[in-house]
Amino acid sequence: MTPTGAPFSDVGWHLRQLRHAPASWTLAILILAIQALVAAVGGPNQAPAGAWFVALGLNRGGILAGKLWQLFTYALLHGSLGHAVLNALLALLLGSRIERIAGPRTMAKAVIFGTIGGAIGHLLLSAGGVGAPLLVGLSGGAVGLLLLLTTLSPDSRMLPLPISGKNLGIGILTAELFLALIDPAFDLPLASDLGKSLVAHGMGAAFQVGHACHFGGGIAGWLYGRWLLRLPTIPS
Question: What's the topology of domain 11-229?
């Protein structure tokens, strides 16, 4: 905890703890380095990067064809610089907090579990069947880190939001599952009608985000946190 007991309340304290977060820095730099390489060769829609996305991005067709590595590798690629920078920042801010609480190994495991959970969530709940667009990005791992943090610190205030970690975690999981299920492309009876209504009112951008991936990653982070809390001491 911070000196005030709120994980996001003391900006200076968090900036200082970034100095002691090797796993978080490694992951953030890796994400940005890969994005720089993709940009240097022309972007994801140009050769050779386009082939990298097909081989390493996640979709049902690839998994059914035996490309099980996609369960992990999709998290290393990002569709844009903004997407990569956002996930790199989340890896730093959330990962450094986890490293402070439980050490770099726990942080690394949380990212891996969140990434796998995000992949499973996408494969089970996303729309489009075998021909669905590729999923890329570390968002599943990032949400896994966040849910691990809210699980390990359920009573802490998650500023700038005036709510507890427990309520924030519940809210995130509920919202992500809800948005995944009402996606018009998912075509779930009744639920998709609500999604179509949102699209008709100009809110279609809400369905351009991998909510199913976020939900799966969050569930993985929550389960990992529950498991850690059952141990006599949290490993570092």
Answer: Rhomboid-like fold (1.20.1540)
On the question of pLDDT at 28 being above 70, the answer is yes
Strand, helix or coil for residue 123: helix
**pLDDT tens digits along 80-103:** 999 999 999 999 999 999 999 999
Q: What's the rounded Cα separation, in Å, for the pair 121 and 218?
A: 10
The residues near 235 (Cβ < 8 Å, ≥ 6 apart) are 102, 103, 105, 106, 228
Domain limits, the chain: 11-229
Given a contact cutoff of 8 angstroms between Cβ atoms, the answer to whether 195 and 207 are in contact is yes
Helix, strand or coil for residue 58? Answer: strand
The mean pLDDT value of the chain amounts to 88
For residue 160, cis peptide bond before it (omega within 30 degrees of 0): yes
Q: Which two tokens stand for residue 10?
A: 């003391």
